[in-house]
Write a structure and sequence with these properties.
With 205 residues, the chain is of the alpha/beta class. It has one domain: Flavodoxin domain (Rossmann fold). The chain contains 6 helices and 7 strands, in the order E-H-E-H-H-E-H-E-E-E-H-E-H. The strands form 2 sheets. Strands 2-1-3-6-7 form a 5-stranded parallel beta sheet, sandwiched between helices. It has a two-stranded antiparallel sheet with strand order 4-5. Helix 2 packs across helix 3. The longest helix is centred in the middle third of the chain and has 19 residues. The chain binds flavin mononucleotide. The site of flavin mononucleotide (FMN) has 17 residues, from helix 1. The site of flavin mononucleotide has 17 residues, from helix 1. Keywords: Flavoprotein, FMN, NAD, Oxidoreductase. It is an enzyme of class 1 (oxidoreductase). It comes from Aquimarina litoralis. Belongs to the azoreductase type 1 family. Its EC number is 1.6.5.-, 1.7.1.17.
Length: 205
């Protein structure tokens, strides 16, 4: 088996983020399994997984957490500190990773609520982006993201696809520009064929 190692011996981190509420029957998770295996075979990774529907760290924000985002740590109340703790963990974990796999089902033309909640937790000034005189600048450089998108009937790349553009905008916002989309759309038409085509794309990465 061919493996490549970084010269400085620092093992790269692969962070996989699953965002389907379905587990056993999820096609995006199934394709993410194939991609994870493929990447782990080609390079030595330390792999972390976040499951936005089944991970208790992924929560909706509230007044305390949002206030804490803009309050220096030593001035936060204990309630604010507690409310922002999961965001601190997830944002710094995300910022430290090198390569990402997002498995992203389309729900009502956008990403699932769980993924949106996760994105709101990891997009943090001072951790994943910073404010400058010229506006916000992403802090995550030299990263690679793979985004697997599944849809039932909607064709990706059309005007009603609010997943592809959103994922690109959000990743670019954090500084991640090397993005590979793996489309698995219109599954309802012919699931087997659509999954086979996406698997082939992954195997050719
Ligand atoms: C609540 C809900 C909303 C959905 N909305 C859309 C949609 O807007 N467009 C679409 O093409 N498919 C839609 N689908 C179908 C899913 O995108 C499709 O089943 C996909 O395979 C889900 O990913 P998963 O298999 O990883 O769970 C929806 C499914 C559910 C359950």
């Amino acid at each position: 088996m061919k493996r490549s190692f970084q010269i400085n011996n620092k093992m790269k981190t692969l962070l996989r983020i699953d965002s389907s509420p379905r587990k056993q029957t999820s096609i995006s998770r199934q394709l993410a399994d194939v991609l994870q295996e493929k990447l782990e075979k080609s390079e030595q990774f330390s792999t972390l997984k976040r499951d936005v529907y089944y991970d208790e760290l992924v929560t909706l924000g509230n007044e305390d957490s949002v206030t804490a985002y803009f309050t220096p740590e030593d001035q936060q109340t204990s309630t604010q500190r507690e409310a922002v703790a999961s965001s601190n963990i997830l944002a710094s974990e995300f910022s430290k990773a090198d390569t990402y796999i997002f498995s992203v089902p389309m729900y009502n033309f956008g990403v699932t609520a769980g993924l949106k909640a996760y994105i709101d937790l990891i997009s943090r000034a001072g951790i994943s982006f910073k404010y400058t005189e010229n506006g916000p600048v992403g802090l995550l450089e030299n990263k690679k993201a793979y985004v697997i998108i599944t849809t039932g009937g909607t064709k990706l790349g059309t005007g009603v696809d609010h997943v592809t553009g959103y994922m690109k905008t959000f990743l670019n916002f954090l500084g991640i520009t090397d993005i590979e989309f793996i489309n698995s759309d219109q599954i309802m038409a012919d699931a087997e064929q659509v999954i086979a085509k996406a698997t082939e794309i992954i195997n050719n990465i």
